[in-house]
């Protein structure tokens, strides 16, 4: 609450202002409101009452209504009613916040730990990870949202949500309002700088009380404690967060200026010493079967826990092994989420709609009579493809069993035949695109049917543009699917380059838009005129080339210019350029064909030419660039290493910022030759490529690395 009593505003009414006076007044109000925001939110020392503050805002709005041309880019009105995401500063995580691989069946868990074992080679290592001996920290998987809290000199200095794992939202002021988050670390022995990671969640009791309050105030209820926690943390006004019963469990850490534990168990003890809540049920288990026993016990107690959990997380306890295991795509090889079984519910299939993807694929989606499955309202389910519909003989009007497992898209698992309406008919999958009417064909052996409309199909064009501005690509806020579809229809955006030529004056006069929102959009677009090569490649939406592959390509070619030159050469039939592409570890024949196919199309090259005039593609920087001798280098392994498996060697090279290739060429920087190396080593010697033996490799691999 702002404290002091209201003081009437003694300034001319908005109607009485000249344009020059209005301009000065808007400047004054922007500064004044920002000052009160700061006093209120950050310093907790308000100088005006709520009423007086509101009067300032209302006055600002009234003047803006009279003089729309004078709306300032930093206008306070831009900050209300905006999507919450637009209001948070972005934070780049110093170490990515990873996700976890999921398992549902016990067999999958056993297979996962067999995979952990297969990663190692030396007897001593193998003994540590044998299924009956491996130390596994098993923890309840809290159903909330993860956050990363940075402490410097023992003080909380920055808090961020996970976001996409690489960039999150800054929520420091909000996190400070949580009682279970220490402002200063207790005791001593903490690293000078450390990021504590854990889950922000809401207890079931607090959730029910909150929803009761919301109902009384005529506000919509939250669907479940997780949504309530997320909605409560992501509040522009930390005072709102402060009023919500949020809690925090610490269970991991990101960057740390110094090591502080040898095992996960020890680390959890330290976190507790420093003042964090650590889940009391977490248990160190010896062997995979003991971990599975923990899972069964927790599953049985699940309902009686004060908060929602959606499974168990297993972590290799030994941190040295964890470090060596590294990660695959965005998940560590050393940890696994064992989810509770999916929840099921019966409902009616109301309709089947066909979505057209950016490559023209026709995907059926089930429209359901909304139903709550495991605390979440489900109205749509994935139907995969037309064979799936035929196989299950799904018909509109059918009673269907819907299953939802964790955050996985709901699925229809069965049809209740006995309840089928008499007049129902088998579903006919369309053979024409429902959007552009072009023929939709299914190639031999393919499971998907594709619209042949290509460039004339609005659905494909809109989907491609949507991908282009999406979170993992250009990440342009405020340009959603609806806007793209409208702009496309009216010819304002037809190609990616058009996005950067949008004229705010023309947008501002459209229905649903104003000068301010158009200006904000233009500013969001301008803010994204430079991006890194990996994001750029991903943005192009080339078939099969997603985020992970885009990163592999960026890592190898580094610069946009080289990437384009090499692929154009390959598209012109230069077999060496093609061989260099295929040489990248992780790029298969099919992917290479799609990439080359993309460059073979003149209109794709025209799109690139056009974009080059609008944006800047920054060279890819390997995350370990500064630290490692392998950063940006191409490395080839040959022969057998006695100390580590090939997978560990590759993982290590990548963690150090290197790129692993399968054959030796003029572009190879380094060859690591184990026992019985064969022709690759010979070729390296011929080409004068540096060759390391196992010992030299181990010395190099011992360098401190970073997550790629
Ligand atoms: S460890 C490498 N431990 O589950 C990832 N995660 O599905 C580090 N979660 O994003 C996470 N309880 O939000 C870990 N005891 C626990 C957890 C936990 C809940 C969440 C977390 C993570 C998600 C992955």
Characterize the structure shown.
- With 708 residues, the protein is an alpha+beta fold.
- The chain folds into 6 domains: 14-80, Orthogonal Bundle (Helix Hairpins); 119-200 and 247-339, D-amino Acid Aminotransferase, Chain A, domain 1 (2-Layer Sandwich); 344-441, OB fold (Dihydrolipoamide Acetyltransferase, E2P), CATH 2.40.50; 457-528, 5' to 3' exonuclease, C-terminal subdomain (DNA polymerase, domain 1), CATH 1.10.150.20; 532-618, 5' to 3' exonuclease, C-terminal subdomain (DNA polymerase, domain 1, Orthogonal Bundle), CATH 1.10.150; 624-702, BRCT domain (Rossmann fold).
- The protein has 26 helices and 26 strands.
- It has a 5-stranded mixed sheet. A 5-stranded antiparallel sheet has the order 16-15-14-17-18.
- A hairpin with a 2-residue loop joins β11 and β12 (331-332).
- It starts with 18 loop residues before the first helix and ends in a 7-residue tail after the last helix.
- The model is unreliable at 3-9 and 80-85 (pLDDT under 50).
């Amino acid at each position: 609450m702002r404290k002091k009593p209201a003081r009437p505003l003694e300034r001319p009414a908005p109607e009485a202002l000249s344009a020059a006076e209005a301009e000065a007044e808007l400047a004054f109000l922007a500064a004044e409101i920002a000052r009160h925001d700061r006093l209120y939110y950050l310093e907790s020392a308000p100088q005006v009452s709520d009423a007086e503050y509101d009067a300032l805002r209302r006055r600002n709005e009234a003047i803006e209504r009279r003089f729309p041309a004078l709306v300032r880019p930093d206008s306070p009105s831009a900050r209300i009613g905006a999507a919450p995401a637009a209001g948070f500063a972005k934070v780049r995580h110093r170490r990515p916040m990873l996700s976890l691989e999921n398992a549902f069946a016990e067999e999958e868990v056993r297979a996962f730990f067999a995979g952990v074992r297969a990663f190692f080679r030396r007897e001593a290592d193998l003994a540590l990870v044998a299924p009956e001996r491996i130390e596994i920290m098993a923890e309840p998987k809290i159903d909330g949202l993860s956050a990363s809290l940075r402490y410097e000199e023992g003080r909380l200095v920055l808090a961020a949500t996970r976001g996409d794992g690489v960039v999150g939202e800054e929520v420091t002021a909000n996190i400070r309002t949580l009682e279970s988050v220490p402002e200063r670390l207790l005791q001593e022995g903490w690293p000078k700088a450390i990021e504590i990671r854990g889950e922000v969640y809401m207890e079931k009791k607090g959730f029910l009380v909150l929803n009761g309050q919301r109902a009384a105030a005529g506000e919509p209820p939250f669907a479940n404690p997780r949504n309530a926690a997320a909605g409560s943390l992501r509040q522009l006004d930390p005072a709102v967060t402060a009023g919500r019963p949020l809690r925090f469990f610490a269970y991991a850490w990101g960057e740390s200026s110094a090591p502080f534990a040898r095992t996960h168990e020890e680390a959890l003890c330290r976190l507790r010493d420093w003042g964090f809540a650590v889940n009391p049920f977490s248990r160190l288990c010896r062997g995979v079967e003991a971990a599975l026993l923990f899972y069964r016990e927790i599953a049985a107690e699940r309902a009686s826990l004060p908060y929602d959990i959606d499974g168990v997380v297993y972590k290799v306890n030994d941190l040295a092994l964890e470090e060596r295991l590294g990660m695959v795509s965005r998940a560590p090889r050393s940890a696994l989420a064992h989810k509770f079984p999916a929840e099921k519910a019966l409902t009616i299939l109301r309709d089947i709609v066909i979505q057209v993807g950016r490559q023209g694929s026709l995907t059926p989606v089930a429209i359901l009579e909304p139903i709550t499955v495991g605390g979440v309202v489900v109205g749509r389910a994935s139907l995969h493809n037309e064979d799936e519909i035929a196989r299950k003989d799904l018909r509109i009007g059918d009673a269907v069993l819907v299953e939802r497992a964790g955050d996985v898209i709901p699925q229809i698992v069965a049809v209740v035949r006995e309840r089928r309406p008499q007049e129902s008919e088998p579903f006919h999958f369309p053979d024409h695109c429902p959007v552009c009417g072009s023929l939709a064909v299914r190639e031999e052996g393919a499971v998907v049917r594709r619209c042949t409309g290509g460039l004339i199909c609005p659905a494909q064009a809109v989907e491609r543009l949507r991908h282009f501005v999406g979170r993992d690509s250009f990440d342009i806020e405020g340009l959603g699917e609806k806007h793209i579809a409208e702009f496309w229809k009216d010819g304002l955006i037809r190609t990616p380059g058009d996005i950067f030529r949008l004229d705010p004056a023309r947008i501002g006069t459209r229905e649903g838009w104003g000068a301010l929102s158009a200006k904000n959009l233009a500013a969001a677009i301008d803010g994204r005129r430079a991006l890194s090569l990996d994001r750029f490649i991903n943005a192009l939406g080339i078939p099969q080339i997603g985020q992970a592959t885009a990163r592999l390509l960026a890592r190898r070619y580094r610069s946009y210019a080289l990437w384009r030159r090499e692929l154009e050469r390959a598209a012109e039939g230069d077999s060496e350029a093609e061989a260099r592409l295929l040489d990248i570890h992780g790029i298969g024949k099919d992917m290479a064909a799609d990439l080359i196919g993309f460059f073979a199309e003149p209109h794709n090259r025209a799109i690139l030419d056009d974009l080059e005039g609008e944006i800047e593609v920054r060279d890819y920087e390997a995350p370990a660039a500064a630290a490692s001798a392998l950063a940006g280098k191409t490395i080839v392994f040959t022969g057998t290493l006695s100390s580590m498996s090939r997978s560990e060697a590759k993982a290590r090279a990548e963690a150090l910022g290197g790129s692993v290739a399968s054959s030796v060429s003029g572009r190879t920087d380094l060859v690591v030759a184990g026992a019985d190396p064969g022709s690759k080593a010979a070729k390296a010697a011929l080409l004068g490529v540096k060759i390391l033996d196992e010992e030299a490799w181990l010395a190099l691999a011992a360098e401190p690395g970073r997550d790629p």
